[in-house]
Here is the input.
Amino acid sequence: MTFPPSDAERRRLSVRLLGYLRALAERRPNSERVGPFVATFDDSDANIFFNYAIPDHGARPSPGEIAALTALFQARNRKPRLEYMTDAAPGLEAALIAEGFSVEARLPTMVYTPGMGVGDASAAGFDVFNATRDEDLADAERVQAQAFGGVPQGPDGFKRAIGQGGIIVAARDRTSGVIAGAGMATPPIDGIAEVAGIGVREDFRRRGAAGAITALVTRIAFENGVTLAWLTPESTDAQRIYARAGFAVACEALHISL
Here is the structure.
């Protein structure tokens, strides 16, 4: 792949990533198909990032299918919303807006492929490591929840992810001994994994932990057979961090909700 990618490369990548998202959603215990959508839910946490729908490639839903999707979310007391790569379903945004949806965010989608040169996995004052012990996983999950405004759920979710091939990386502050940051790579599907949940406690930020976590989780994922890693930065600062870790912008993700 060239950077920036050609239009054809961007479309192929978008379709591939959308297929990954849909397959991941279908694997979750609380998922349901409605028309050209797969909706996935977390019954214990209303965080919008745990409750969303993924469209099929090229989806062009009817107003009735959008209404059915909306009703499914409302029946579960969740906000109707979707996440997808715009180039994989170019006509979908207009159809959703016509039914009252509004764009939450357009996020650059960054990828890492073999040969791109992963960044430095060290950060001064931190031990950055592959977390597997229950106590480290519990602390890492708590840090993630704090960083993203979620509710701590304990380490069981991380343990399940590891059992399916996912990776959890944490950064421990050498002075205090506390877990200061964490991140993960999701269980791979067809060689694709998402690098997600890179979060650092506010009092430990701007010391290089986020970049080191990103670099190490990516390195381990590729050592374990992943061939394409991707992520979506939520700010220009985060984008710069991920770029230093070796990622490059390749396409666009859309978050849209009612």
Q: What stands out?
A: The mean pLDDT is 91. The radius of gyration is 18 Å. The CA atoms of residues 135 and 155 lie 8 Å apart.
